[in-house]
Amino acid sequence: MIELVFKLLEIVLIIALLIPIAAMLVWVERRMIGIWQDRLGPNRVGPIGILQSVADLLKILGKEDWVPPFSDRLVFILAPVIGAVCVLMSFAVMPFSPSIGVSDLNIGLLFFLAMASLAVYSVVLAGWASNSKYALLGGMRAAAQTVSYEVFMGLSVMGVVLLTGTFNLREIVLAQQEGWFIQTQFVGFIIFLIAGIAESHRLPFDLPEAETELTAGFHTEYSGLKFALFFLGEYLGVTLISAMSVVLFFGGWLMPEPLASWLPPLLWFILKVFLFVLFFILLRTSLPRPRFDQLLSFGWKYMLPLALFNLLLTAVFKLTGGFYG
Amino acid sequence: MAATHTNKALDFSTKNDWQQANVIDIYQEIIALAPDVELMPVTAVENVVDDIPSFWLDKAKLCSVMQALKHDLSKPFDMCFDLTAIDETERQHKAKFISDFTVSYHLRSHARNQDIRLKVAVSHLDKKLESVTSFWPNANWYEREVWDMFGIEFIGHPYLCRILMPKTWQGHPLLKTHPARATELAPFTLPPDEQDKEQQALKFSPEAWGMKRQNKHNDFMFLNLGPNHPSVHGAFRIVLQMDGEEIVDCVPDIGYHHRGAEKMGERQSWHSYIPYTDRIDYLGGVMNNFPYVMAVEKLAGITVPDRAKVIRIMTAEMFRILSHLLFYGTFAQDIGALSPIFYMFIDREKLFGIIEAFTGARMHPSWFRIGGVAHDLPQGWEKLVRDYVNYLPKRLDEYEKMVMQNALLKKRTVDIGAYSSKEALEWGVTGPGLRATGYAWDMRKQRPYSGYDQFDFEVPIGHKGDCYDRCRVRVEEMRQSIRIIEQCLNNMPQGPYKAEHPQTTPPDKARTMQDIDTLIPHFVNVTWGPVIPAGEVATFVEATKGIMGYHLISDGSTMSYRTRIRTPSFAHLQMLPLISKGQMVADLIATLGSIDYVMADVDR
User: Fold this and answer.
1) pLDDT digits over B310-358, tens only?
2) Does ipTM top 0.85?
3) Which sequence spans correspond to the domains of chain A?
4) What span, in angstroms and rounded, lies between the C-alpha atoms of B594 and B328?
5) B64 and chain A: CB distance < 8 Å anywhere?
6) B557 at the A interface (CB within 8 A)?
7) Which residues make Cβ contacts (< 8 Å) with residue B387, sequence separation at least 6?
8) pLDDT band per the 50, 70, 90 thresholds, residue B519
9) Do A163 and A318 touch, CB atoms closer than 8 A?
10) Which of B231, B411, B587 sits opposite A212 (nearest CB)?
11) B328: alpha, beta or left, given left = phi > 0 and alpha = psi -120 to 50?
């Protein structure tokens, strides 16, 4: 009984931390983009603008909770909730540190992939329920993009699964005590990262919401709290993909000695994740956006064969004992 | 590729401005091809002071002359440069051929480097005329504009409807009988039922444009892009007929930024109209003043002093850089690259600082004056300009890596939105959009004005005429502009910055207290504004977006009788359906970005 209470407490704590972190990321992103674009970014609310997200949240809370009369009401409201919930669910299998983590699911990785695929319903349903042409085009793009990129996202992590022989994320981290998988699975990592960016709809893969083309894509008709949920979902998604990259390829909370003794494992984990988040933001400031069909053909023509090849190579090495004997 | 130091002294002693070739030749050539046509040269009363050969012709013979000019002539006239009308009902200096309305066709032959102006008189009893859209596809919008503004009907026009005014508008605004000020009209109201009617009128009906709602396999989707959309650069609406994400056809809808700039010209003194010109191409600043003051000077017979000429060229080139930098950044942004525009805004900011030091204003200095510029350059201007001339090329080198060499950007723009030189001329495209097709036609080289012949610069051209080339040409033009500015810096002539001429506005004040002959014109010019002699003139400059020009008719008063503004963006948008067919939405956005239009320039 006590154990259950503790578990619930842990879940509540993680969610209570994750959501403010995602909100803070909005500020971090705007601030970092500001620096990289030779301007200041938000610096008015609180010291160096750190309370900007709070101000944004208050503003959004004060907005009218409006549902367009021409939309499909129920689905319209449900769509942003699905997105945020799916991403939050994925964190259930995340091993944050040796002792923190909601569930040691033995199919943790599969669970993550399943949740990532479910999240696309949020975008597709939003596009459909809005009953607006821009939203529909955005939803359509999201569906095509996710279907294509999911395929090789799954394939890209199979190399890691082959090497460890498990889907359990905690065991995957522990298997990296000899060396991070980035050394042996570099190609897998690159593919995973690209697919991850596509999954989280960040530039250069932000076609479902491509501002210059579709005004705001699938969330054109959204405002107020429901829009905030999409926003939250996106930033949680960025965190999720970053955390997943760290877990799968960068040893999770592990660090080689003597670095490991400098900071507790959890902080190391957070630090690594944060570096990835910064990388996501930097991408947004530096790259143009490909065209929809170019993006798809890039996925199917280059990424998929590469992922398959990587898998094949890993299997061969594993059979012949190439990596770790 | 930094700007090279040139110290060639500028020599304005000989008048090297371009002049039209022999008028008589073209007259005889046309007569030989169309013997039944009677071409009457313009009369002395009209006092056409530009050197464009101008003829009156009978409206029944319009099409046969167009046939001769467009198809039969060796080295034919390949561009319908401008088409407009004049309401002559209140004209005092009425020449022999003038009736109630005049429709004026301005055609251009690039091979001959010659223009021709044809005038057709139309009576108010029979306000009809043959359409020339079968000869010049771009006459389509011009004729719609004339119909919209004057109510002259064009027989055989494919779809004659309002273009600048709302569909529900009553009357024709450029008629002399139409009030020019809101105070002359009843107070404006918009009750709910009226509003519904207005909104209903904006609804797009594919059938009216001859579009089908479905084909054998699919239903088409009609996407309303604009008038408020992040990528249409202003209030511009395009209705896309789409099959999935592919564009089958589109209808550009303009007029949302129309503020009656031409009508205002008829109510402002020659001098006080200058600030209005700034707002035509609102990114062009003094570049807009340029053709207007040149036109008025030509009418008044003012010779501008050398120093004023060089100052004008220098500031105009600065605004070319300002406009192109904004284009560069927004173009990259339309492709999805968010950062370049912020770096370029820093460069623009620095240059605006210089403009501010010169003129006291930034985007809209209204700084040119009839006969010169508003004031002399400030002390220490050389250092400001020299620093900037040394600063910008390095930044452009960085942008080259960031934008032009980016593989994703190339993928999005190379071979996208391409058109050929022939199509460009057919649709009246000028400026960088024409040069990107490999057609090296720059007004500053081909028809030098205001002393441009004294400067060393090259005309950058592209090859494919696609989005990428249009950007490339503009980037190179910035480097050439720096070259020109550097030459201005090294060779700035001494002397007055304003002509000594009674019509110069504001007139020279130094001697007013000494002699009555200066005092009286000064008093009159400052109170009424200058009285410009009756006449007609059209002048053009190579502006930031293409060739911009003013066609002015003076009736010998303190205000213009008719102010026609020929803007490049109007022509460029008209060919959008041609280039966008078969594109995807994302390509259309890239194409729109690469055209570099300003809606204020389109709608006037």
Assistant:
1) 999 999 999 999 999 999 999 998 888 888 999 999 999 999 999 999 9
2) no
3) 63-320
4) 9
5) no
6) no
7) none
8) confident
9) yes
10) B231
11) alpha
